[in-house]
Design a protein that fits this description.
By secondary structure, this protein is an alpha+beta fold. The chain has eleven helices and ten strands. The protein has two domains: 88 residues; 228 residues, BirA Bifunctional Protein, domain 2 (2-Layer Sandwich). The N and C termini lie far apart (89 Å). The structure holds adenosine-5'-[phenylalaninyl-phosphate].
Length: 340
Amino acid sequence: MDFSKVEKIKEQAARDILEAKTTSSLKEIFNRYLGKKGIVAKQFFYLKKMPQPKRSEFGKQLNELKKSIEKRIKEKSRIIEGKDSREKRKIHKIDVSIPSKKPQLGHIHPLTKIIRETQDAFVGMGFSVEEGPEIETEHYNFSSLNFPVDHPSRDAHDTFYLKKDTILRTHTSPVQVRYMEKHNPPFRIIVPGRVFRHEATDSSHEIQFYQLEGLMVGKDISLANLKGVLEEAIKRVFGKKTVFRWRPGYFPFVEPGVEIDIACPICGGKGCSTCKNTGWIEVLGAGMVHPNVFKAAGYNPKNWQGFAFGFGIDRLAMIKYRISDIRMFYLSDMRFLSQF
Ligand code: FA5
């Protein structure tokens, strides 16, 4: 038997043990060298066949080899286990004094805020909140509201057509007729909602924006009631000192028609790009319900009077929060939204 073989096994085992990085690889090395059918066991098999005195000499060497491998494995195992538990301790260590991460809270969108505030102002005056569909028919959006067949806003330039006779509503006024068809007067309602117009956008015009419609129908309702209710609402939302003005306006579904402008808060009325150098921002159209609209809804116009109005919600938010460009509301920019 070659005695140098024992030396080689010892060296190889030492190298293997040195390279082992985990408990399981160390176990594998143990089995490979010291297992029942391992490298060292094989040498013991040769030992039996050896004549004396070589046999006892070789036996001594094999025992030493076995002990030395066992010793190295034990030592390495202590190193690996120590490292393992050091690392485990690192992972499981909890420092209770570190401040926790703050959860990111959402913000109420400025348009939602102004819708709620405007709604509250009207609910406080006895109005109830209704809603209607964003996808409308030409009938409700135009015809029932006394728009002549050739009215320019029916044109594809202003209206998004989905298919013939089906459109995205261009204002919240169609809900007036929808509501009157199903309810009897007297009543007072408001209808917040999204509307769509195929328009060029600028600092005060979007292609989708929000309106808040209002309709009050009863006996002896007059323009004075309209004036009183709207002035009270503006004071409730913007404060008593708000500067605003009335103008005559034309809408096919009211007679007479009026509009309200609020002094531009961006320039203080001096004129800027937000108010197109007029010093004023148009916030609503309104008027006394046209007899033809009552007729379209199935009411007798001789028995009932009413007023209607439609606020531009985005414009209200621009004024209240001093936002110079309407497009900011739709950018989903957290730097903007987190200010509210
Ligand atoms: C209407 O839409 C009428 N339905 C309002 C009305 C209701 C009149 C009831 C009489 C009775 P107008 O197109 O002017 O009217 O729009 C109403 C308001 O919406 C405007 O005063 C303005 O504040 C806002 N608005 C109009 N177009 C845009 C737009 N492109 N972007 C943002 N706001 C707009």
